[in-house]
Design a protein that fits this description.
- The complex is a heterodimer of chains A (473) and B (179).
- Chain A has 473 residues and is of the alpha+beta class.
- Chain A has helices at residues 3-14, 20-32, 34-58, 62-96, 98-117, 129-138, 215-220, 231-235, 341-354, 365-383, 391-403, 406-416, 461-472, and strands at 142-153, 157-170, 174-181, 184-192, 197-202, 207-212, 240-248, 251-259, 269-278, 284-293, 300-311, 329-335, 422-423, 436-443, 446-451, 456-460.
- Chain A folds into 3 domains: 3-57; 89-320, outer membrane lipoprotein receptor (LolB), chain A, CATH 2.50.20.10; 339-472, no CATH class.
- Chain A contains 13 helices and 16 strands.
- Chain A has a 12-stranded mixed sheet with strand order 7-8-9-10-11-1-2-3-4-5-6-12.
- In chain A, helix 5 (98-117) runs antiparallel to helix 10 (365-383) and helix 5 packs parallel to helix 11.
- With 179 residues, chain B is mainly α.
- Chain B has one domain (5-178): Rna Polymerase Sigma Factor, Chain: A, CATH 1.10.1740.10.
- Chain B has helices at residues 5-13, 20-39, 42-59, 69-102, 111-119, 122-133, 138-145, 149-178.
- Chain B is globular and about 60 Å long.
- The chains are: A alpha+beta (473), B mainly alpha (179).
- At the A-B interface, helix 1, helix 3 and helix 4 of A face helix 2, helix 3, helix 5, helix 6 and helix 8 of B.
Chain lengths: 473, 179
């Protein structure tokens, strides 16, 4: 064996992979060859270095650390996927069922309307140019515009949902709103200027429904809902800042922006409103509202844009009359819930009856919609797998869905009026007779309390404090 | 020799995440050796190692050839190392000095060696990493890499020669700098 042959086999020799004969040949060559012995030593030295470094690098608890991290991250991913699925499922369920579709539309109307409706109309600063613009716009008798609402997060899921509407307004005849979902008409809502009921029509279902307005709503119905004529006035109830000039669709505009004006407290969080008016005509060109509804995991983001305005447009009175084809069925007459204690208690009772004694976990429109949709989902799933509920069932459900909105309307009103309301539905059930479910201030030092069993009484601020402290412990 | 990589990968994909542990155990040394050579610091390498395994785990479904798991993982490790280098470039320079100071003490990482291994060609590097940092025998390495045992020993022989040359060059450069 020569040196070249020997060196080729050295690694095999060290690793004990050679057969007996080969091993013997290498050994005998090494005995006589100083250079190959030196080579062998150097390879072994390098191997020892590699083995030592390899051992040092492997001395750690990385295996467990890696597995812990994988388990943790996988749990997170799963939870997120489940949430997204759940959101998607709830939304699919809502949109498949005519009842919940109607209820959600109503909720969106309430939510959207509340944004403008709940601005108190007082405190307008009459001193500046914007006040004059507001006055001028408020005088216009008719208006048509497009309203785009995008809601996302919370119940709706991150992808969100768009609702497009066309709104017709006339001082003489009232309002009409056509709601479109995914391009097709979902619902038409007619609010007459002097009537006491509004009519909702669902062309896809060939159904319609009358909704009786509460006295309070009727009193305010002239200037409420989606009436952009009041937007500037209402935006100016708090401090605002001028946005300067810009261009929208080739029109030179100027704008103002408000942040959390006092009137929306208790209704919305992180509220930003912007109004842009045409510099030449001083009529609004675009109104934008960005806000959160609810807080925590259920917080829903709402973006609302009104544009495509046609101010002073002449309109046929027929536009405002619901022309209901004869083959449409009525779903009866519903009552919009009142904003008072009795209606709130009634709504809470209705919810608890359906939810085995639980109350809505939070007092906001979106949480309430989500939770009642879930309950309906279960009930409908159990009662009628895949079959369409009867008209009677639908009517009952819609009535209930309306009813359960009452506490949130009342609660919102309390917040808006500065009555320091609080709600503990997350921890209190109908079995907790002595636990405070909801409370609000009725005068200095006195609070009104609704308990878990839905009884109500007045208590002193001290006693309330005591009860709330006890509940926290 | 326990089950091959493909078996465990399929188990993970079938919803048994804990079986990934076997792959971590099998490759943590080799990948650590590679990352240490690339990054020059143990703490960075350990951090990167976790990231590599986590990414590999969540990327298993995109792995087309399970038999190339190790090579694929080294690709991931290379990307992670590059990211780390970008983030930690400044710190690394300081750490290298520190590493050189401790290089030859007992039970300390052999930084010049690890860095030299990282510079080997892909094939030789995989062999060295599996054999010494993964603690696998030559026969296991042949199985993992799906090559004849003779190729393993011949290639190791060449890798040793190359490593020795590079280490010699580095040492020469080092002494030049010092003088």
């Amino acid at each position: 064996m020569n040196c070249v042959e020997c060196r080729e086999l050295l690694v095999g020799y060290i690793e004990k992979l050679l057969d007996v004969q080969q091993g013997e040949m290498v050994r005998s060559h090494l005995k006589d060859c100083h250079d190959c012995r030196k080579e062998l030593k150097q390879i072994i030295a390098l191997q020892n270095r590699l083995v030592a470094d390899g051992a040092v690098r492997s001395q750690n608890d990385l295996e467990n650390a890696v597995m812990d991290r994988i388990v943790r991250e996988q749990a997170l991913k799963l939870r997120k996927a489940n949430q997204d699925n759940q959101h998607a499922n709830i939304w699919r369920f809502i949109m498949r069922s005519p009842i919940t579709k109607l209820a959600v539309a109503a909720v969106i109307i309430i939510a959207v309307a509340a944004g403008i409706y709940y601005f108190a109309g007082e405190g307008t600063q009459k001193c500046c140019a914007w006040a004059q613009i507001a006055d001028k716009v408020a005088q216009i008798k008719t208006c048509v515009y497009n309203m785009h609402v995008h809601i996302s997060g919370g119940t709706i899921g991150q992808k969100g949902q768009d609702v497009e509407s066309k709104v017709y307004i006339s001082s003489d005849y009232g309002q009409r709103i056509d709601f479109f979902l995914d391009g097709s008409i979902m619902q038409q809502m007619y609010v007459p200027a002097d009537g006491n009921a509004m009519v909702m029509v669902m062309p896809s279902e060939k159904k319609y429904m009358r909704m009786v307005l509460t006295d309070e709503m009727r009193a305010k119905s002239k200037n409420q809902m989606q009436d952009p004529r009041d937007a500037i006035t209402k935006f100016m109830t708090g401090p605002f800042r001028e946005l300067g000039k810009d261009t929208i669709n080739g029109v030179e505009v100027k704008g103002i922006e408000v942040n959390n004006p006092p009137a929306v407290r208790g209704v919305y969080n992180n509220f930003i409103g912007r109004t842009w008016v045409d510099v030449a005509t001083e009529y609004p060109v675009r109104i934008e509202i960005e806000t959160d509804i609810g807080t925590g995991a259920d917080a829903t983001k709402m973006l609302m844009v009104m544009d495509g305005f046609e101010w002073g447009k002449e309109m046929d009175p027929g536009v405002f009359e619901p022309n209901i084809p004869s083959d449409y069925k009525t779903m009866g007459e519903m009552k919009l819930p009142g904003q008072d204690e009795a209606s709130a208690i009634d709504g809470l009772r209705t919810f608890a009856e359906m939810a085995d004694g639980r109350y809505p976990s939070q007092m906001n429109v979106m949480t309430l919609t989500k939770e009642s949709a879930e309950i309906y989902g279960k009930k409908l799933g159990a009662n009628a797998k895949g079959t369409k509920p009867s008209d009677e069932q639908m009517q009952q459900m819609t009535a209930k869905m309306m009813k359960v909105q009452a506490p949130v309307l009342f609660y919102t009103k309390l917040g808006r009026d500065g009555n320091d309301p609080a709600y503990y539905g997350k921890d209190v059930t109908s079995g907790d007779a002595n636990a405070v479910l909801m409370r609000w201030k009725i005068s200095d030092g006195t609070y009104r309390v609704i308990y878990g069993d839905l009884s109500a009484e007045n208590v002193t601020a001290e006693k309330l404090k005591e009860m709330e402290r006890a509940a926290q412990q | 020799m326990p089950e091959n990589d493909g078996f465990y990968i399929q188990r993970c994909l079938d919803g048994h995440p804990d079986d990934f542990r076997h792959l971590v155990r099998r490759y943590k040394g080799p990948v650590m050796g590679y990352l240490a050579g690339q990054l020059g610091r143990s703490d960075l390498a350990e951090e990167a190692l976790q990231e590599v395994f986590v990414r590999c785990y969540f990327g298993l479904s995109s792995l087309e050839k399970p038999e190339s798991f190790f090579a694929w993982m080294l690709g991931v490790a290379n990307r992670v190392a590059k990211e780390q280098v970008r983030i930690e470039q400044k710190e690394r320079q300081a750490a290298e000095k520190l590493a050189q100071m401790h290089a030859q003490t007992n039970n300390a990482p052999d930084w010049p060696l690890a860095k030299t291994v990282a510079k080997l060609d892909d094939f030789s590097r995989q062999l060295i990493l599996l054999r010494y940092y993964g603690g696998h025998t030559c026969k296991d390495v042949a199985t993992i890499m799906n090559i004849p045992i003779g190729t393993v020993t011949k290639s190791l022989s060449r890798a040793y020669t190359r490593l020795r040359e590079m280490l010699k060059d580095e040492a020469a450069q080092e002494s030049e700098v010092q003088s």
